[in-house]
Design brief:
By secondary structure, the chain is of the alpha/beta class. It is about 20% helix and about 15% strand. It is built from six helices and 13 strands. The chain has a six-stranded mixed β-sheet with strand order 1-5-10-11-12-13, with helices on both faces. The chain has a three-stranded antiparallel β-sheet with strand order 2-3-4. Helix 1 packs across helix 2 (about 35-45) and helix 2 (about 35-45) crosses helix 6. The longest helix is centred in the first third of the chain and has 12 residues, at about 35-45. It starts with 8 loop residues before the first helix and ends in a 27-residue tail after the last helix.
Length: about 270
């Protein structure tokens, strides 16, 4: 498929994030948030039609639902009932891949969605709590989505509250090793990364067009593994953009990033896409 030059940063990130699900086969894909959900939906409609996706209520879908309000005559493509017991069967058997948006991520891949501040009894900011993240992170694959790549997210020390299991031997549950941890891609507004550096170090995989290696290093609070050759994140194809616009007819994706700049930031502001 041929790449197109007219795309936004949100669309570039959706396409990059969709590749996290490409080789999963038949697993339950859970994208938490607009861009992760669109990424999983795009993957289901392109590179991995075996992905399983729910309507977030009670049904497994044959086709992902579009986001936002739908026409009165819209009928979702139910494949079968998918109650909580079947969801948890997938979670505990490892047949799920979630893409989540932590508030903090540390050098071990541990993530925080719970609270900010050094005193957990009196946090500066109370967030979601750990929810099901500890069990999910030890049971199945997870990827991370970060809309604003900066040192407040990629922290220099450990997360204020460790809500998920990472590559930290000191915090692993008894009987587990780092080989049991499956953290896949990290998609940010600057780049794509994974945890395939030496000893599970966070590794730079690709740079979004117009972003430098130095910028990524400066905006990360710990050392990264930088390969000798870092490619550009592939631009969306016209076919991918057409699917994204079908899945998100109200352009909710455009509100997920500050000003949602062009995906190729080498282009001038005058050439910015809508």
């Amino acid at each position: 498929m041929q790449a197109t030059e007219q795309y936004t940063l949100a669309e570039l990130m959706i396409c990059a994030a969709s590749r996290a699900f490409a080789d999963d086969g038949e697993v339950l894909a859970t994208g938490i948030g607009v861009i992760p959900r669109l990424a999983a939906s795009l993957a289901m409609k392109t590179v991995n039609p075996d992905l399983m996706m729910t309507d977030s209520e009670a049904y497994l879908l044959s086709e992902p639902n579009p986001l936002g309000p739908r026409e009165d005559d819209f009928v979702q493509a139910n494949e079968t009932w998918m109650g909580f017991s079947r969801i948890f069967d997938n979670v505990w058997s490892g047949r799920r891949h979630a893409m989540v948006g932590p508030t903090q991520i540390d050098r071990f891949g541990q993530a925080n969605i719970s609270a900010l501040g050094s005193d957990y009894q009196r946090p500066k900011v109370q967030m979601l709590g750990v929810r099901g993240f500890p069990g999910n992170s030890i049971s199945h694959a997870n990827s991370f989505f970060v809309p604003s790549h900066n040192p407040r997210v990629f922290v220099s020390g450990e997360c204020d509250m460790v809500a998920s299991v990472g590559f930290n031997p000191a915090r692993l549950p008894k009987g587990y090793s780092t080989d049991d941890i499956d953290i896949r891609l990290v998609i940010t507004d600057l780049c794509v990364m994974d945890w395939q550096g030496p000893e599970h170090q966070l590794r730079l995989v690709s740079l979004h067009p117009g972003v430098s290696v130095d910028t990524v290093i400066a905006q990360t609070g710990f050392a990264l593994h930088i390969p000798d050759d870092v490619p550009l994140t592939p631009a969306p194809t016209a076919a991918q953009l057409a699917i994204i616009r079908q899945l998100d007819p109200h352009n909710l994706r455009g509100a997920q990033l500050k000003d949602n700049p062009p995906g190729d930031r080498r282009t001038s502001a005058a050439e910015s896409v809508q």
